[in-house]
């Protein structure tokens, strides 16, 4: 009989994609939905990167490539990390995969198995827990709070380590909270990792989206010892508005990269050849578009904060300012267990999001999906007009509960 594997049977669908699907369902009924569920830049991929893809296609770069990616792209990744972070890596320390999500899966599948523990600070990106569980390992969730700016301290990290700890999975800047660790906070974590010999998977996909008052440092950059323990995952999706091209990378010890390449060669073969050539141009070409997009996100972040600020006094809704990425993660627990618009009552953030969608036609993602009950996530990677209409609609919705 066709029975499912227990590991797959236990999988939940990605909650962010599920929230987007719910919004789409309503849109298909002809309702105008203000959708803030998506975690991707609303910009098109910059022209010069598109042109590089067309050129690659015309030049016949339409065949299989080496399973772990073309040498040109691995070299371009090495050049970029030298240029941007003064980090020295060799091409045999780089693996190209089908997006950073695939990179994370490959790292976990290569390193983890039953009996292992992976430390994950919460709130955490939805896929982390699922991808860890797929390997048979166990996620060990370390709770961070709004008051601490959603940052895990070195003490918390140390306290979570057991003889079974295989890995720390760190996301900086963070999806969903936008938390950006300070260099001092990172260095304190790095010291614990070195002292206790714990490898760190550092998901740095939002590295280029940093706002005033915050500073990005790659986790590998604090000492040769931490560099040897760090596996960096990043990619072109967020910085270059290339989510659909599916190019991510892993940088780390050559032996691990080689094992991951073996896995990938059996699993998917190479990532898309054309996308790889486009990614070479993204990394080697002019970087102005990265900053131009960041500036737009910075403006939307300012706007979002200006709309959220009065809600603290008015509704008890609070939001720590995000240091990076493009999400506002706000605390709506003051709105639970009391009549909202339409007389409906939400007992948790998931129900709050459902009622908000039904009554105000605004789609947010529930914090429950990220291990953060009482919170909701709004992506400000949307055009200015939609953002304004969205805040107007949420404000009206909140006010109707007063
Ligand atoms: N890591 C985090 C924290 C993300 O938010 C995302 C995308 O939403 C990814 C990784 C995956 O990026 P990619 O589209 O390159 O697979």
How would you describe this protein?
By secondary structure, the chain is α/β, with parallel strands linked by helices. It folds into two domains: 6-44 and 289-399, Alpha-Beta Complex (Aspartate Aminotransferase, domain 1); 47-286, Type I PLP-dependent aspartate aminotransferase-like (Major domain) (Aspartate Aminotransferase, domain 2, 3-Layer(aba) Sandwich). It contains 14 helices and twelve strands. The strands form three sheets. It has a seven-stranded mixed beta sheet with strand order 2-8-7-6-5-3-4, with helices on both faces. A three-stranded antiparallel beta sheet has the order 9-12-11. The mean pLDDT is 96. The structure holds pyridoxal-5'-phosphate (PLP). Pyridoxal-5'-phosphate (PLP) binds next to helix 5. Pyridoxal-5'-phosphate binds at residues 39, 99-101, 125, 171, 175, 203, 205, 235, 237, 243, 248.
């Amino acid at each position: 009989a066709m029975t499912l594997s227990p590991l797959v049977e236990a999988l939940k669908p990605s909650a962010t994609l599920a929230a987007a699907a719910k919004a789409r369902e309503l849109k298909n009924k002809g309702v105008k939905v203000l959708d803030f569920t998506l975690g991707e830049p609303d910009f098109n991929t910059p022209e010069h990167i598109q042109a590089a893809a067309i050129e690659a296609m015309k030049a016949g770069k339409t065949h299989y490539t080496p399973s772990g990616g073309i040498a040109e792209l691995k070299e371009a990744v090495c050049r970029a990390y030298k240029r941007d972070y003064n980090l020295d890596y060799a091409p045999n320390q780089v693996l190209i995969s089908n997006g950073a999500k695939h990179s994370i899966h490959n790292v976990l599948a290569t390193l983890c198995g039953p009996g292992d523990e992976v430390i994950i600070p919460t709130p955490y990106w939805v896929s982390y827990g699922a991808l860890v569980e797929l390997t048979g390992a166990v996620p060990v969730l370390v709770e961070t709070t709004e008051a601490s700016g959603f940052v895990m301290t070195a003490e918390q990290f140390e306290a979570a380590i057991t003889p079974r700890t295989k890995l720390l999975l760190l996301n900086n800047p963070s999806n969903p909270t936008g938390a950006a660790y300070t260099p001092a906070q990172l260095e304190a974590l790095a010291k614990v990792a070195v002292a206790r010999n714990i490898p760190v998977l550092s998901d740095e996909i939002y590295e280029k989206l940093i706002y005033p008052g915050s500073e990005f440092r790659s986790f590998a950059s604090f000492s040769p010892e931490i560099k040897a323990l760090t596996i960096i995952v990043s990619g072109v999706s967020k910085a270059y508005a290339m989510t659909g091209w599916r190019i991510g990378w892993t940088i780390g010890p050559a032996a691990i990269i080689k094992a991951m390449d073996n896995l990938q060669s059996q699993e998917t073969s190479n990532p898309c050849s054309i996308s790889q050539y486009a990614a070479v141009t993204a990394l080697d070409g002019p970087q102005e578009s990265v900053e131009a997009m960041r500036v737009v996100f910075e403006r939307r972040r300012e706007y979002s904060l200006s709309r959220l600020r009065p809600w603290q006094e008015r509704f008890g809704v609070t939001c720590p300012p995000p240091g990076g990425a493009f999400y506002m993660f706000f605390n709506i627990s003051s709105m639970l267990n009391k009549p909202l618009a339409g007389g409906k009552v939400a007992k948790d953030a998931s129900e709050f999001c459902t009622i908000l969608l039904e009554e105000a036609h605004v789609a947010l993602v529930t914090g429950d999906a990220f291990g953060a009950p009482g919170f909701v996530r709004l992506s400000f990677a949307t055009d200015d007009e939609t953002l304004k209409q969205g805040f107007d609609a949420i404000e009206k919705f909140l006010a109707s509960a007063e």
